[in-house]
Design goal:
- The complex is a heterodimer of chains A (about 525) and B (about 325).
- By secondary structure, chain A is an alpha+beta fold.
- In chain A, about 30% of the residues lie in helices and about 20% in strands.
- In chain A, the strands form 5 sheets. In chain A, strands 1, 8, 9, 10, 11, 12, 13, 16, 17 and 18 form a 10-stranded mixed β-sheet that branches. Chain A has a 4-stranded antiparallel β-sheet with strand order 4-5-7-6, with helices on one face.
- In chain A, α8 packs antiparallel against α10 and α13 runs antiparallel to α14.
- The radius of gyration of chain A is 23 Å and the shape is globular.
- By secondary structure, chain B is mainly α.
- Chain B is flat and about 85 Å long.
- The chains are: A alpha+beta (about 525), B mainly alpha (about 325).
- At the A-B interface, α5, α11 and β16 of A face α2, α3, α8, α13 and α14 of B.
């Protein structure tokens, strides 16, 4: 389980401190000391709705609800806290059953009630994870799930995974009422703090307080109304200004600056929400086959400038060319910082004394700041003699476009391109740099093999501190090899009316605790 | 007369068949597929390529285009647009209520726009060249020229934010009754109404100006018939006939063209569903919406043709 505190993390992050200071200043001490009140409603607009569109037949299923945040309705065995450590949730114990870490035992909390007032048991967890392992990418590693008692469950994985409890905290890992695979979850019945009253597929959902929620005394609110305003930030913010919404989730940094001086609103941010990975292709003929070119590119990027321009200086952070977010306790800053002279030297050694043209960097507007982000990157590498063209591609079909074929002999190569990545535990994040996956640009070689061997060792290392040491070594390989670059990332942001209290945001946008929010 | 009607119906059916083919090709050449966009990069990172290929096969995304086209045309004939790719929901249950809602919004606008445009257009024509005509003509040009999203945004800033008497964004549900939807949508209706009145009033004014300057109206005036009777009983019907086709086409375009307004106000209509269908690569939903919109345009155009056939004997001989 996590042994880091939020205080320690904030001490290590200037950006996070800025955010905290901003919020404290805006809220004032008086608000922080108020006692929570019961009652009232929260009406919010969600700008990052569920990617899986629900229809009339499945809109109450946790995979297809209007908001991918399933925690208000369903409980998961574990929960990822804002410091990215995991905590027990509806389970009272999650422990490995063997030294190989591929068998895990879970004990469920007793007396947890579903919204239809039946008790949650191991049978529900088994039926739920049998569904998840066949339908949720993160749960595919589960090869068998079985009941070991009325409240005990055993998971068998295809390989050791020391961070398996994180999988049990995913938004696609809720415990549903047991049922056949074809119909499980469609009733919308969970054990969360709120139950579904009505749902309009893809558009809105109304929840009301569940009086028998297992966390006694919660939730505070009587009702939550969720309205999908995906891709309609202005419409959502107009609704907020007009008093129709109490909060808008997942706004961008520029929108946040519109509200920060308004006494009626408060901005909540969570450091380390997401990042952009730039895959550097290593197919035949690519300049990125030469490690020195990759290193030069990494040294030439002015990461601070990206944070300054694309994230207003406060709502972003400098990446370290791994998939880890800055708030992850395993995150190791990239040594050396920006070094244009070194970049030029590396290029000269690689046979490009007069600079190099890297071709076209493709990007898609997955997040509003992407355009500004890549323009700054393009400008900054020019100082080191690196030129590149930028080409915006539509989000539609972008994955297919940038990925190409895994088999490099077929000639449909992956592209020099970006994509957004979310905040996850190191076990998931660092696996993304494997050679068999496109985000590493199909990285190969002895250092890659050493990286993977270290990864496999981390996955069977139960001790968190020992694992962190391994992750640090893996990051030092990435800093040297630069299979991909992740120059900077952004924070997750929401804007709320001041009468909504205890509504901090979370780097994993699906892990916000709605039961703790109250209305003054 | 019957031959003329039959010819127009046949032409309409042929137009629809061509449109169906065009819609299929257009959706076929869109990049990516429903599986690509339903998976985030985070999820994608966990799926091996062979499993991804299997998922595409399971969803039927690997079927050749001619097979899918055959199924598409067969579905149209049976009024069955199939099921969504990811959630397997019948397309009609996705598209039905949004279509009703778009028709409600367009219908409300037209019910208000036609009489208002008629009154304004006739007034401007009767007082042609006077101040009232200048004001109407200038106002119509401005009203028709400003994009609807600008009008909508200005109305929101004025009547929802600065002076909060109407909602800025529509939170009514897709299946709410028509009255609830309209009560939640005053600014959306007003936004479309401004452009509609501007366009239709210009049509009516032009027709009326021509009619009032025609020889038959001059002869009526010489017989001593009161001016109000000349305007409303004789000139107005003559002025409306040429405007009928343009008005019918405008009404059709309104149903399919209020996408922008629906997005500005988050109105639960076809526009929202179309954008969602395109961004999520639900080709069956996109095809159904495009074809239904096209059918409405063709049907209203046909109705206008038939109305003109009935009202204007000269067209029957053409």
């Amino acid at each position: 389980m996590s042994d880091i505190t939020r205080r320690r993390l904030l001490q290590g992050s200037a950006g996070a401190a800025l955010l905290t200071a901003l919020d404290t200043e805006l809220l004032g001490d008086a608000a922080a000391q108020e006692q929570p009140k019961r009652g009232g409603a929260l009406v919010y607009a969600q700008l990052s709705a569920n990617r899986r569109a629900g229809g009339p037949s499945n809109h109450k299923h946790p995979y297809f609800t209007v908001d991918a945040n399933t925690k208000p309705i369903w409980s998961t065995p574990s929960w990822v806290n804002p410091d990215l450590g995991w905590e027990l949730e509806v389970a009272t114990k999650i422990e490995q059953a063997d030294d190989k870490l591929n068998v895990w035992d879970m004990t469920l909390r007793e007396g947890v009630m579903f919204h239809d007032m039946t008790e949650m048991t191991a049978a529900d967890a088994v039926a739920s994870f049998d569904y998840h392992r066949q339908n949720a990418p993160f749960a595919r590693q589960i090869v068998k799930v079985e009941a070991a008692g009325r409240h005990s469950v055993r998971f068998t994985l295809d390989a050791g995974n020391s961070e398996f409890p994180y999988v049990l905290a995913e938004y696609n890992s809720p415990i549903m009422k047991a049922g056949p695979l074809e119909t499980i979850g469609l009733d919308g019945i969970g054990t969360g703090p709120f139950r579904i009253v009505s749902s309009d597929p893809n558009r809105s959902m109304i929840l009301e307080r569940f009086e028998h929620y297992w966390r006694r005394g919660f939730p505070y609110l009587d009702r939550i109304e969720i309205h999908n305003r995906e891709g309609q930030q202005e419409s959502a913010l107009n609704g907020l200004r007009a008093g129709q919404f109490d909060a808008v989730l997942n706004i961008d940094g520029r929108a946040a600056t519109q509200f920060e001086n308004n006494p009626n609103f408060a901005i909540e941010g969570a450091k380390g929400g997401y990042s952009f990975v730039i895959q550097l292709p290593k197919h035949p003929g690519s300049p990125f086959l030469d490690k020195r070119v990759r290193q030069a590119f990494a040294f030439a990027i002015d990461r601070e400038a990206i944070v300054r321009v694309a994230y207003s200086g406060r709502f972003g952070w400098v990446g370290n060319d791994s998939h880890l977010m800055i708030t992850d306790p395993s995150f190791v800053p990239r040594p050396g910082g920006r070094d244009v002279a070194r970049a030029r030297r590396l290029l000269a050694e690689a046979g490009h004394p007069n600079g190099i043209n890297l071709g076209t960097l493709y990007w898609s507007p997955q997040l509003p700041e992407a355009g500004r982000y890549f323009q700054v990157l393009q400008q900054s590498v020019r100082d080191a003699g690196i030129t590149l063209a930028l080409e915006e591609r539509p989000n539609d079909g972008y994955i297919q476009f940038r990925t190409g074929d895994n088999d490099l002999t077929r000639g449909n190569f992956h592209k020099f391109a970006m994509t957004a990545v979310g905040s996850r535990n190191p076990g998931i994040s660092m696996f993304r740099m494997r050679g068999a996956f496109v985000e590493s640009g199909h990285w190969r070689g002895p250092e890659h093999d050493r990286y993977l061997a270290l990864y496999q060792r981390a996955m069977v290392t139960a001790d968190a501190a020992a694992r962190r040491t391994i992750y640090a070594e893996m990051q030092s390989i990435l800093h040297e090899e630069v299979p991909a670059v992740l120059p900077a990332g952004g924070d997750t942001l929401l804007v709320r009316r001041r009468h909504m209290r205890d509504m901090p945001y979370h780097p994993q946008i699906w892990s916000i605790r709605f039961e703790q929010i109250w209305r003054a | 007369m019957l031959i003329a009607i039959a010819r127009r119906i046949l032409l309409s059916l042929l137009t629809l068949l061509m449109l169906a083919t065009f819609i299929f090709v257009a959706t076929e050449i869109m990049p990516g597929d429903a599986l690509d966009v339903s998976l985030s990069a985070d999820e994608l990172s966990m799926i091996p390529p062979e499993r991804l290929a299997q998922m595409k096969r399971d969803l039927g995304l690997d079927r050749p285009p001619h097979e899918r086209f055959g199924a598409f045309i067969a579905g149209i004939v049976q009024l069955d647009f199939g099921r969504t790719l990811i959630s397997k929901t019948p397309v009609w249950t996705i598209v039905g209520y949004p279509m009703r809602n778009s028709l409600i919004l367009a219908g409300a606008v037209l019910v208000l726009a036609f009489p208002l445009a008629l009154a304004i257009g006739v007034t401007a024509a009767v007082w042609r060249g006077r101040t009232v005509d200048n004001v109407v003509s200038t106002g119509a040009v401005i009203g028709y020229s400003i994009p609807e999203f600008v009008i909508g945004t200005l109305l929101v800033m004025a009547f929802a934010v600065a002076w909060p008497i109407f909602p800025a964004t529509i939170t009514a549900l897709t299946r709410d009754p028509a009255a609830t939807l309209l009560a939640a949508s005053p600014l959306a209706v007003a936004t479309v109404l401004i452009g509609s009145i501007a366009y239709l009033a210009r049509l009516v004014r032009t027709g009326m100006v021509d009619a009032l300057a025609s020889d038959f109206v001059e002869r009526l005036r010489l017989t001593g018939i009161p001016e109000w009777r000349i305007v409303f009983v004789h000139a107005l019907p003559a002025a409306i006939i040429p405007s009928l086709t343009a008005a019918a086409l405008y009404a059709a375009a309104l149903v399919s063209g209020i996408v922008v307004v629906e997005l500005v106000f988050a109105y639960p209509g076809l526009g929202q569903e179309l954008v969602r269908g395109v961004t999520r690569r639900e080709v069956h939903v996109v095809q159904a919406i495009a074809l239904c919109s096209a059918t409405i345009v063709v049907a209203l155009n046909l109705l206008a043709d038939l109305a003109i056939l009935a009202l204007d004997p000269r067209t029957r001989r053409a």
